[in-house]
Amino acid sequence: MGKTVLITGASKGIGRELAIVFAKQGYELILVARSRELLEDLGKRLRKKYGTDVTVIEKDLAEKEAPEEIFQELKGREIEVLVNNAGFGDYKEFAHSEWEKQYVMIQLNVTALMHMTRLFLPSMVERGHGKILNLASTASFVPGPNMSVYYATKAAVLSFSQAVSKEVKGSNVTVTALCPGPTSTNFEDTAGLVNSRLFHSLKVTDARKVAVCGYRALMKGKPVAVEGMSNKFLVFGIKLAPRGVSLTMINQIQSKLREGKPADQ
Ligand SMILES: NC(=O)c1ccc[n+]([C@@H]2O[C@H](COP(=O)([O-])OP(=O)(O)OC[C@H]3O[C@@H](n4cnc5c(N)ncnc54)[C@H](OP(=O)(O)O)[C@@H]3O)[C@@H](O)[C@H]2O)c1
């Protein structure tokens, strides 16, 4: 039997591409998302093409009990790699945002990711091997006006991943935070970013490239991986600049396209 990877948010975008990359490498797949049909279709395709064993779990990870239910369902299976990928954003000034949506975002992007890690990490440490890939973002490095909650969730993912990566150092278990910039997936539509400059001012990458970058960084056990040269420059600049300067720059990038002005003018 091959090694097993559990991927959340595998029905679309980066998670789907990650599933393809792992299938090519001979992993058995456990795919989680809400869209059962999309997962089944992908599973069928990957079984046919790579002879991969695929298990589909339909689950809303924003629900409190979801990680525990997944863990119980998989009792007895050795999970070599956990990919916490499911997540979404929301492009709205905080004062006018819908609280329920922000709450669900925090539940999914942060709480479920931490809970899944808490459930699957101990057995990895106990047996002395395993890997976790957490989807952070270039948004992890700076506050993001008009997407304040999303940027804050991604800052939490990076901070958490780096801290746990240090805790498990020496155990042969690694934790990697993958930080893509704007990537062509359903994310833009789900977040309502059509009128934002974000996907127009920065280089947009395709999801396959992000998945390959994440897979390689994970295999090397890197604690943090920023995808692409332009994103690396951006993050380098953010780290060098005073926080206020980075914030002003991101405020411009996050401003509305039609108005052509930063949100606070
Ligand atoms: N695209 C970008 O520009 C970008 C940049 C940096 C980081 N990221 C991060 O990359 C990750 C993947 O995003 P993406 O760009 O691939 O977006 P996407 O195409 O919208 O895919 C999001 C995935 O998450 C799943 N998901 C959403 N809500 C869920 C829930 N409540 N329970 C279970 N699964 C759920 C979706 O499946 P269902 O709808 O079927 O549930 C889908 O498979 C996210 O964490 C995102 O923050 C994206």
From TrEMBL:
Record GO cellular component, one term: membrane
Protein name in the entry: Short-chain dehydrogenase
Entry keyword set: Oxidoreductase
Family matches, as InterPro entries: NAD(P)-bd_dom_sf (IPR036291), SDR_fam (IPR002347)
Pfam families linked: adh_short
Family per record: Belongs to the short-chain dehydrogenases/reductases (SDR) family.
Keyword field contains Transcription regulation: no
GO molecular function, one term: oxidoreductase activity
Superkingdom of origin: Bacteria
Keyword field contains Chloroplast: no
